[in-house]
Specification:
10 strands; eight-stranded parallel barrel; globular
């Protein structure tokens, strides 16, 4: 039945509107959101050697972070973060066609972590993260929509009675992995299929019961790209959709592991990005949440603190809410975005935290 339901490759274009359409005004949902944190490299970690029936913590700790605890979530909240993004990789934790049933222990663990935050009355974002079945090619589109519908139908049922504090984010950075098109905004095919899978996600959730009829839903453009990708997002004709973007600007300072450690008050890319998001979306009543941002550690806390305060003030002026990508990494050659130590629950970079808090006093 599910297969027949999705035989048409994508919803008719008449049911979708490009980003240039002026949408109905709506209550600014994001007014209640200050700043957030993404708990990265934990429930979104994966290891293909792990079996679907293995204990959830085997996956959760596969990338060397400890399991998420109530104490960690409490530490984030005490630091002033009132929206917590919980990236989750479902690949390896659901069964075969036609049902694609999510393994009960994994779903139970995800619910446990959501409850850590939900019972504290903060906002939560639940998503699909490092998936390997939603690559945006036309010959994969039908299958990707079927799996998208199956997974989100199950998640919508599981969390039907959770109110609007729980936001669903359809997918993370859908893109043509390992190709020259991966990070540059994609091509027509890639953008078409991302829009199609986004539409399948929205339809699946809205087909659920309880709060799913009115829950806020986040959809990205291709790769959640903040430049070319945002130009081609097709937003379903309803008024509880949030645009999802990721941005580490300026790249050479914020994300490039071989880049500079001095910010040098390089504001041009930040200003341009926030103006673009304001003009395209927030001025039209379409909320924007930046689910991932940050500047990696290069032994430059003072520069990062100045940068984050400027970044968040520019975002707030544009009506954009931002979540720091905290991957728990403080040492080594990788992307060192760790902020709160997950063993001691203490912030390793108090100047950065103070700068973040200054914006929302």
């Amino acid at each position: 039945t599910l297969f027949l339901f999705l035989m048409i490759r994508r919803p008719p274009r008449s049911t979708l509107f490009p980003y240039t359409t002026l949408f109905r005004s709506m209550q600014n949902f994001t007014d209640g959101i200050r700043v957030g944190i993404s708990i990265g490299n934990t429930l979104d970690s994966f290891d293909k050697s792990i079996k679907i029936t293995d204990a959830p913590e085997k996956t959760e700790t596969a990338w060397f972070n400890p399991v998420i605890t109530q104490e960690l979530v409490d530490a984030y909240i005490a630091a002033g973060f009132n929206i917590i993004r919980i990236p989750v990789t479902w690949t390896g934790h659901f069964g075969d066609a036609p049902d694609y049933t999510i393994e009960a222990s994994w779903l139970g663990r995800v619910r446990e972590v959501i409850d850590y935050a939900y019972k504290r009355k903060v906002y939560i974002i639940l998503n699909l993260h490092h998936e390997d079945w939603n690559y945006p090619y036309y010959d994969n589109e039908e299958r990707a929509c079927i799996i998208m519908t199956a997974l989100w139908s199950q998640l919508a049922a599981e969390f039907a009675e959770y109110d609007e504090h729980l936001i669903f984010e359809g997918q993370n950075e859908p893109r043509k992995v390992g190709t020259p098109l991966e990070w540059n905004g994609g091509d027509e095919e890639g953008r078409d299929v991302v829009n199609s899978t986004n539409a399948a996600f929205v339809k699946a959730v809205r087909g659920g019961t309880g709060y799913n009829k009115s829950r806020y839903l986040m959809i990205p453009g291709y790769a959640a790209n903040c430049t070319e990708g945002i130009k081609y997002i097709e937003i379903p004709d309803e008024d509880r959709i949030i645009v999802s973007v990721h941005a580490y600007e300026p790249y050479d300072f914020a994300l490039n592991t071989q880049g500079r450690d001095k910010w040098e008050h390089d504001t041009a890319k930040i200003d341009s990005l926030m103006n673009e998001l304001k003009t395209r979306f927030t001025d039209k009543g379409i909320p924007v949440i930046m689910g991932e941002f940050g500047a990696m550690s290069k032994n430059n806390e003072d520069d990062r603190a100045e940068w984050v305060e400027y970044y968040l003030r520019a975002a707030a002026k544009a009506g954009v809410r931002c979540l720091w990508w905290d991957n728990g990494l403080f040492e080594g050659e990788g992307e060192r975005f760790g902020l709160i130590d997950r063993n001691t629950y203490v912030c390793r970079f108090p100047k950065i935290l103070e700068a973040i808090q200054n914006v929302f006093k």
